Amino acid sequence: MTNGTEAPAIGLTHGASQDTGLGNRGPQSKSIVVPYGFWLFVLSDMVLFSALFASYATLVHATDGGPVTSQLFDRTNVAIETLALLISSFICGLAMIAAKRKNMLWTQVFLFFTGLFGLVFLVIEITEFVGMVRIGAGPQRSAFLSSFFTLVGCHGAHVTAGLLWIGTMMAQVWAKGFQPHIIRRLLCFSIFWHALDIIWVAIFTIVYLIGTLP
Amino acid sequence: MFGRLTWDAIPFNQPIPLITSIVVLAMIAAALAWISYNRWWPYLWNEWITSTDHKRIGVMYIVLALVMLVRGFADALMMRAQQTVAVGASQGYLPPEHYDQIFSAHGTIMIFFMAMPFIIGLINFVVPLQLGVRDVAFPTMNNVSFWLTASGALLVNLSLFIGEFARTGWLAFPPLSEKQFSPGVGVDYYLVSLQIAGVGTILTAVNFVTTILKIRAPGMSYMRMPIFTWTALAASLLILAAFPVLTATYGELMLDRYLGFHFFTNDGGGNSMLYMDLIWVWGHPEVYILALPSFGIYSEIAATFSGKPLFGYRSMVFATLAICIISFMVWLHHFFTMGAGADVNAVFGIASMIIAVPTGVKIFNWLFTMYGGRVRFTTPMYYLVGFMITFVLGGLTGVLLAMPPVDFVVHNSLFLVAHFHNVIIGAVVFGVMAGYTYWFPKAFGFTLDERLGKIIFWCWFIGFYLAWFPEYALGFMGATRRLQHIADPSWQPYLDVAMVGAVIIFAGIVLTVVQLIYSIRTRERRLDLTGDPWDGRTLEWLTLSPPPHYNFAVLPDVHGEEAYWTRKQTAIKEAKLIDEPDYQPIEMPVNTPTGIICAFFASLCGFAVIWYIWWLAILGLIGAFAIFVWYAWRDEHEHIIPVEEVRKNARERRRIRHELLQELIKAP
C-alpha cells in the first residue's frame, strides 16, 4: 500500500519529507496516517470489548437459578458460525488483493462474498438468539444471560455495521474507481473485518468452548 | 407519539428552574438576534462552525468550557448557599430532590463539559503548532469531535428546561441509578449525553495520538517534543484506553434501564460492585487525563518565564509515562470500604502512594527550573507557584486517603470532597487558566490585561483556600458529602467561611469576563506584533499571532530540544535570519458541515432515546448514516493556498522578525 510519491497527510509542500522512517523526517504520508489512526480506533474498540468480557467473566455464574452455559451452547452450531466468519475474512483478503490490482470485477465479487458469509454468520447468530429467547433464556432472565447477549450481541452489531460498510464500499468502488482514498478506506474496512475475527476467537474460546466443557 | 414527553416535563410549578430557563432562553434568543442583526451568520458558519482548522476548533472548545464553567459554578453557588442557610430548624430554599439534581449536574458538567473541553481545547490549539505542522491528522474528524461534545453539553443543559437531571451523583452508581429506584428521565439524560460526548472524546484521542506519533516537523524526534505535547500524548493514550470502558459501562446500565437486563440490579444475579470496578477503571485515569496536560502547561510556563530550559526534561517525560501506566493500577482506592479485603486494599493503597513519586519528581523539576533562573512573575507564573503550593497540600491529603485505615474514617466525608477539589482546582483549573492566559496572545494577537489577570488569580487562590480548607475540618468532624440539610449547628461557622470563599471565586469568574472584554477594547495597547510576546522557547512562538490558517509557510527544520529557542539564539549570534526558503503552494483541508449535522442528528437521536420517542430515534440514526455516506462521497478534500499568498505572508513575517532581531542585537 505504501506509495512513495503520495502526498503527506497535511500540507503538500516541501519540508514535508516523503521518508517513512522513524517519524522524524516530517509528516508521514496519508497511506500511513489513515490506517494508523484506524488501528488506534480498533484498539479502543477492543478495550470496549475487554470491558464486556470482564463483565461476562464476573457474571457467568450469576445464573439466578436459570439455565447455565452448558445447557445453552451448541458446539457444532458455533463451529459453522466461526467457519463462516473466517471464510468471510479470507475472501476479504482476496478482495484487497483484487483492489490492489485495480480489478473491478473481482473486487466486487469478493466484496459481495465477504458480505454474504458475514450475513450467514449473522443469521446463525440471530437464530441462536431467537432460540434462546423462545426457551425463556433471554437477556432478562439472569445476569449471566444479560452479559452473554451484550458481549456476543455487541460483536454481532459490529458485524452488522461491517455489512453496511461493505455495501457502501461496493457502491463507492463502483462509482469512484480505485482512487487512493477509496483504497485507503478498503484497507480500513479490512482491518475492521479482521479485528472482528480476533474478537470472535476470544468469544469462541471464553464463551463457547469454556462454556461447553464437560 | 411523543413517548414519555408531556407538558408535565416543563417545570411550571418549580420557580427556580422555570425562571432560570426563561432567563437562559432569553439570553440565547438575544444572542441569536444580535448575530442576525449584525449579519454574522456567514462569518460564523464559514470561519468557525464548519472550520477544520485546529486553532479555531480549539478556541470553540474553550468557549464551550467557559460557558459550562459558569453553569457549573452557578450550581456550586446554589449548593453552598443551601448549606449555609439550611442549618438546624431551617430547611433552606432547595428541596432534596432539587438539591440532588444540582450536585449531580455540578460534578457531571465540571468534569465532562468544563475541564475536558478546556484541556482538549488547549491541546487542539497548541499541539500542532508545537509540532511545527499545519493541522491534526484528521481535521474533519476533529470538527465532528467538537460538535459531539457540544451535543452532549446541550442535552445535559436541556434537562434544566425539559424534565429533570439525574439525582444519583456524578457517576450514577447503581442500584440507585437503576430503573427501579430512578424511574425518571434524569439518569437517561445523564447516560445519553455522556455517551455522545464520550464518542467525541475517543475520536479526539485517536486524532491526537496519530498526529503526535505520525505528523511532526522534520527533525522533531520524540525526545525533542515539548513537554506539553508529551503530556497531550499521554492524556490521549489514557483516553484511548479508558473511555471505551466508560462507554461499555454506561451501555450496560442503559441496557438495564431500557431493556430490563440484570447487570447491576439487585435481582436476577446482578452485581452492582461490577459497576464500581468498571467505572473507576475509567475514573482514575480520567483524573490524569485532566492533570497531565495541566502539568504540561506548567512545564512550558516554568521554562519560558524562568528563561531556562526545563530542568530534567527526560525525567519529566518518564514521570509522565509512569503516571500514565500506574494510573490504571489504583482504581480500587475509590472504594476501599466496600469489602475487597485487607490484602487487596493494601496492594491498591501502596500503588496509590507510589503514584505520588513521579508527581513529586515533577514538582522538583519545576522548582529547579525556577532556581537560578531570571524569573518573570507574569500571571501564568502566579498560577504555577500557586499550583505548586496547593497541589502539594492536595497530594498530601491524597496520600492520607490512600491508606485504607484512614480512608475508612474519612471516606465519603467532606474531607474527601475537599481533597479532590484541592487537586482538581489546584492542578487543573489553575492550569487551564494559566494556559488560557499564556496562549491567548497566540490565538488573538494581543495579550490579556495582566493586572486583572493577577486579581483573578488571587480570587481563585484565596477563594479556593477559604472554600475548601474548612471542609477538611468538617470532614474530620463527621460531615458527610451531599448534605441537603445541616443538622449540627456547630458546623455553621465553617460553612459560612466556605460560602465567603465561593463568593470570592465567583468574583474571579466575573472578572475573567471583565478581563476579556476590557482586553479586547484596549487591545491596541497590548498588540503582539512579533508573535513571541513571552520570549518563548517552543515552535508555536515561531509563527505570527494569530497564525495563518496553515500555521507555517514552510515546515520548520528542528535541531535539538527547544526548537524555537535554538533558532532564535542562532539568529541573534549570526545577526541574521535563516535564508529565505523556496515557498510552495499549500494544500489545506476544506471546511465541512459534517460535524454540526452529525451533532444535530446525535442530539435528536439522544433526545428521542431519553424520552422514548422511538420513531424519532430511528429517524436520527438514518440521518446520521446518510450524512456519513454523503460525506464519504465528497470529491474535494483539500483546497490549495496559492504560492503568491504564502510568499506574501511569509515575507511580512520575515520583515517583522527582522525588525525584532535588530532590536535584540542592539539590546545588550
Can you give a write-up of this model?
The complex is a heterodimer of chains A (214) and B (668). Helices cover 73% and strands 0% of the residues of chain A. Chain A has 214 residues and is an all-alpha fold. In chain A, α1 packs parallel to α6 (180-211). The longest helix of chain A has 34 residues, at 143-176. The radius of gyration of chain A is 21 Å and the shape is elongated. Chain B is mostly helical and 668 residues long. Chain B contains 20 helices and two strands. Chain B has a two-stranded antiparallel sheet. In chain B, α4 (96-131) crosses α8 and α4 packs across α14 (414-444). The model of chain B has no long low-confidence stretch (mean pLDDT 93). The interface between A and B is large, with 57 and 72 residues.
Characterize this entry briefly:
Chain A is mostly helical.
Lay out the secondary structure.
The complex is a heterodimer of chains A (214) and B (668).
Chain A: H1 30-59, H2 69-72, H3 75-100, H4 104-134, H5 143-176, H6 180-211
Chain B: H1 15-37, H2 41-49, H3 54-85, H4 96-131, H5 139-161, H6 186-214, H7 227-259, H8 272-306, H9 313-326, H10 342-354, H11 356-370, H12 379-401, H13 404-410, H14 414-444, H15 450-476, H16 492-521, H17 563-574, E1 586-589, H18 594-610, H19 614-632, E2 638-641, H20 643-666
Antiparallel strand pairs in B: 1-2
Helix pairs in contact in B: 3-4, 3-5, 3-16, 4-5, 4-6, 4-8, 4-14, 5-6, 5-18, 6-7, 6-18, 7-8, 7-9, 8-11, 8-12, 8-14, 9-11, 12-14, 12-15, 14-15, 15-16, 18-19
